[in-house]
Amino acid sequence: MSFRLILITGVAGTGKTTVGRQLAAELGWPYHEADDFHSAANKEKMGRGVPLDDTDRAPWLAAIRAAMDECRAAGRSAVFSCSALKEGYRRVLLDGAPDTALVFLSGDRELLLARLAERSAHYMKPTMLESQLAILEPPADALRLDVRQFPAELVAAIRRHCGV
What we know:
Elements (H helix, E strand, L loop, with lengths): L4 E5 L6 H12 L3 E3 L6 H8 L6 H21 L3 E4 L5 H8 L5 E7 L2 H10 L10 H7 L7 E4 L4 H12 L2
Parallel strand pairs: 1-3, 1-4, 2-3, 4-5
């Protein structure tokens, strides 16, 4: 299977952005960060430590899917990252898109909390990790990678899996 798009998923602190940027740089593909698709209201809400609900996430997921479809229509490959916590969210992003590889980054709670505590000036607060873990439905059909590995190792594993 030849993949045109790669979607990197996981809860906050798994390194989606770090891995996504590194992978995109190695491939010479554009990188699309899911955080850039959030509305100002969503960012403000998360900044107050209030988890988003499905209503908040619906336009965000639609915007990401539209960007994925734009890449597809233009014949461009790209790397996207998005938490995509629930199966329903992944359906929005992936239905009818067999050219998209799904990657799921996972790690233990303590490691993720430590990573989030190191962030400064980010609206996603460490306290919100629990809400993400509570609703997380890990994908059964994804390349699952443990984030205790170095980003370069994760990128290499993704490239091997996707044949890119």
